[in-house]
Design goal:
The chain folds into two domains: about 5-125, translation initiation factor eif-2b, domain 1 (Four Helix Bundle (Hemerythrin (Met), subunit A)); about 135-340, 3-Layer(aba) Sandwich (Rossmann fold). Helix content is about 40%, strand content about 20%. The protein is built from eleven helices and 17 strands. The protein has helices at about 35-45, 50-65, 70-85, 90-105, 110-135, 160-170, 185-200, 210-215, 240-250, 285, 330-335; strands at about 5, 10, 15-20, 30, 145, 175-180, 205, 220-225, 230, 235-240, 255-260, 265, 285-290, 295, 310, 320, 325-330. The strands form four sheets. It has a seven-stranded mixed beta sheet with strand order 7-6-5-8-11-16-17, sandwiched between helices. Strands 1-2-3-4 form a four-stranded antiparallel beta sheet, covered by helices on one side. Strands 12-9-10-15 form a four-stranded mixed beta sheet, with helices on one face. β1 and β2 (about 10) form a beta hairpin. The chain binds 5-S-methyl-1-O-phosphono-5-thio-D-ribulose. 5-S-methyl-1-O-phosphono-5-thio-D-ribulose binds next to α2 and β10.
Length: about 350
């Protein structure tokens, strides 16, 4: 496989390695990944996370195993096992489906390797395109709000929603970003704050429950979020808390955009109710952990509900910023997404 280098995933000199997103920003640790078990563990523990990145990391590992001489049966099993790690982000299913097709080719080793390479390179191009479309929606001096982490750490390129923010800043639009900390796993507080610092983009970190009063005070001009799966009718799943923002945005008449590549579309899924929502370990809600260790504050027998994602209905979305352009309510309700995948 050729050398492939992204912000948090690389293939170099015969080695797949990933940047540990659970330890950032205070610890920069790269893990070498050589087996399905290792990659599955990295994905399950969110050391590797973000819809596009999960699929790409799994694909690079499968291609690496193919090059190392794994047989077809072992690769088919690897694809199945990696696909089962996280149920909501459809990019993983998209990548694994492409690899299954490659495995059926007569020259299947080359086909698997070139498929993984193309998926990686395609993601860089998709990020660039949607970021440029999205940046056109941003006006000079805008205060933007975002949720979770959708940047270069979560993709092979510059990101989805955070990619838009990056391009708007690069275009000299003098923006400021409100960053939701994003409980329970704090992807906003840990990763988005870190990426914006690295990019020198002015931002202010807030707890998730502070967004409403900021909107009421007129301090949020536009909201950009990513997606883990977009259904045919435009409903979409993203990090839990996204739906709250969409409802608040509607109430305060604030434009609310979802930014995602075509690989996040699942037109076989008719609407948001059909999107499987991952439920995670209660310990993520009863406390918090990271590079600093673990801290638990709730009673150890507390009942916990911990869905990792929620679904935002299409009627709350102002625009779907995709790599092929920006789609409005009218386009999406007349089936524009169906034509795309
Ligand atoms: O659980 P995570 O951290 O993988 O969830 C990530 C998100 O919800 C992102 O918003 C989404 O994957 C889009 S990332 C480009």
């Amino acid at each position: 496989m050729k050398t492939l280098v992204a912000r948090s995933l690389k293939y170099q000199e015969g080695v797949v390695s990933v940047l540990d997103q659970y330890l950032l920003p205070h610890q920069t640790t790269w893990h070498i990944c050589q087996s399905v078990e290792e990659m599955a563990e990295l994905i399950l523990t969110l050391k590797v996370r973000g819809a596009p990145l999960i699929g790409l990391a799994a694909a690079l590992l499968v291609a690496h195993l193919a090059e190392q001489g794994a047989d077809k049966e072992a690769l088919a099993k690897a694809i199945d096992e990696l696909e089962a790690t996280r149920p909501t982000a459809v990019n993983l299913m998209h990548c694994m489906a492409k690899l299954r097709i490659a495995l059926q080719q007569p020259n299947w080793v080359e086909a698997v390797v070139s498929t993984a390479e193309s998926l990686f390179e395609e993601d860089i191009a998709l990020c660039e395109r949607m970021a440029n479309f999205g940046a056109e929606l941003v006006s000079a001096g805008d205060n933007l709000l975002t949720h979770c982490n959708t940047g270069a750490l979560a993709t092979a390129g510059i990101g989805t929603a955070l990619g838009v923010i990056h391009q708007a800043h690069a275009a000299g639009k003098n923006i400021h970003v409100w960053v939701d900390e994003t409980r329970p796993l704090l992807q906003g507080g840990r990763l988005t704050a870190y990426e914006l610092s690295c990019w020198d983009i002015p931002y202010t970190l807030i707890c998730d429950n502070m967004a409403a009063s900021l909107m009421a005070a007129g301090k949020v001009d536009k909201i950009f979020v990513g997606a883990d799966r977009i259904a045919a009718n435009g409903d979409f799943a993203n990090k839990v808390g996204t739906y709250n923002l969409a409802v608040l945005a509607k109430h305060h008449n604030i434009p609310f955009y979802v930014v995602a590549p075509v690989t996040t579309l699942d037109t076989a899924c008719p609407n948001g109710q059909a999107i499987p929502i991952e439920e995670r370990n209660p310990l993520e809600v009863t406390g918090v952990s990271g590079s600093f260790g673990q801290c638990q504050w709730a009673p150890s027998n507390a009942n916990v509900f911990n869905p990792a994602f929620d679904v935002t209905p299409a009627d709350l979305v102002t625009g779907w910023v995709l790599d092929s352009g920006v789609y409005d309510q009218e386009a999406v309700s007349s089936g524009a997404l169906l034509a795309l995948n």
